[in-house]
Amino acid sequence: MPRYAQLVMGPAGSGKSTYCSTLIQHAEAINRSVQVVNLDPAAEHFDYPVMADIRELIMVDDVMEDESLRFGPNGGLVFCMEYFANNFDWLEESLGHVEDDYILFDCPGQIELYTHLPVMRQLVEQLQQWEFRVCGVFLVDSQFMVETFKFISGIMAALSAMVSLEIPTVNIMSKMDLLSPKAKKEIEKYLDPDMYSMMEDNSVTIRSKKFKKLTKAICGLIDDYSMVRFLPFDRTDEEGINIVLQHIDFSIQYGEDLEFKEPKEPEEEPDNTNYDDLFQDKVED
């Protein structure tokens, strides 16, 4: 049977660890088994148990403190991920070989890992070789997306990850529970956006003709091909969490290979009648 995986991606501070924690709690509530693997060597803490932690293999702090390397934070993280790519056997041993696994991979937030480097693509290919069906989950902070140009920037970041990894991807606006009622109403237009209308609404603020032409071309690409759409994620809304999970499950065909078990028929009570005694009673009568 196949195994299932979510690659939880997004910029630093977009709520990836909170998403994993919320999904773990939701899975427990619906009696479903979900595990988490931490792939961020710079992570400090998280409030859920992990089945594997990359910091057992390598840590950013150790790399930065190495006098022979002299890396900064970003260079140190890239070094850690490339070291991880050369040691996938550690991950294979940590994951084991249990069938029907459903695992969340909490990934680092640096966008260059998805646009400039082959590390995450190599991870996807390796997981697929281990019979995982992989779905990308790209998170963007909803507080960042309340302006049109920031929204376009968020779409381009999500699109770059989709193109690079070539896997089914569900894009999510996280931290909806932190928005004010007014901001929630304002952000609804970004969940199913009309890019040309947004462009017209902000045409006054664009002074450069070249920039306006470029922005229009990007909006046309997004709108014409419907390549990126966002789902709202409110950690306090159980129904909303379930809708997000259903979209992801559908993209990786979760549950389609589970064997159907017919309900057991109630067993018939044994007939304890003693026919010899009944026959004897009839004779005596």
Automatic annotation (TrEMBL):
Coiled-coil intervals: none
One MF annotation (Gene Ontology) recorded for this entry: GTP binding
InterPro entries cross-referenced by the UniProt entry: Gpn, Gpn3, P-loop_NTPase
Keyword annotations from UniProtKB, A to Z: GTP-binding, Hydrolase, Nucleotide-binding
GTP-binding is among the record's keywords: yes
Domain of life assignment: Eukaryota
Disordered as annotated region, ranges: 259-285
Matching Pfam families: ATP_bind_1
Role summary: Small GTPase required for proper localization of RNA polymerase II (RNAPII). May act at an RNAP assembly step prior to nuclear import. Small GTPase required for proper nuclear import of RNA polymerase II and III (RNAPII and RNAPIII). May act at an RNAP assembly step prior to nuclear import.
Family membership: Belongs to the GPN-loop GTPase family.
Subunit structure: Binds to RNA polymerase II (RNAPII).
The name this protein goes by in its record: GPN-loop GTPase 3
Gene expressing this chain: GPN3
